[in-house]
Write a sequence for this structure.
């Protein structure tokens, strides 16, 4: 059985967005892939899933980049050697400059 195309409302529901959001994305040239037939936009489920997965990977890459930039920025501030300059979410993890715990 072929993947039946979804209309804007069904696609929006699957993505957890409002249909107007998908319309705005289309007019701005962003968002998931779609096709138009007789003036109506249609989405394929596998395109929506792929778009969601790509976005999640992109968010992880962006968060890592922001964390690395923050780490570098804090490391260059005066007095940085006296404080932990870990990226967000890495607090308490062993770093190259951390002194090992003598008891363990």
């Amino acid at each position: 059985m072929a993947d039946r195309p979804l209309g804007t409302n069904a696609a929006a529901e699957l993505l957890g967005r409002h249909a107007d959001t998908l319309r705005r994305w289309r007019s701005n040239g962003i968002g998931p892939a779609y096709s138009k037939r007789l003036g109506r936009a249609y989405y394929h489920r596998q395109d929506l899933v792929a778009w969601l997965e790509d976005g999640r990977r992109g968010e992880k890459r962006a968060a890592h980049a922001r964390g690395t930039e923050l780490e570098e920025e804090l490391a260059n501030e005066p007095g940085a050697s006296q404080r932990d300059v870990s990226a967000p979410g890495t607090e308490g993890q062993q770093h190259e400059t951390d002194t090992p715990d003598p008891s363990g």
User: Anything to note?
Assistant: DSSP finds three helices and two strands in the chain. The longest helix spans residues 45-75. Strands lie at 35-37, 40-42.
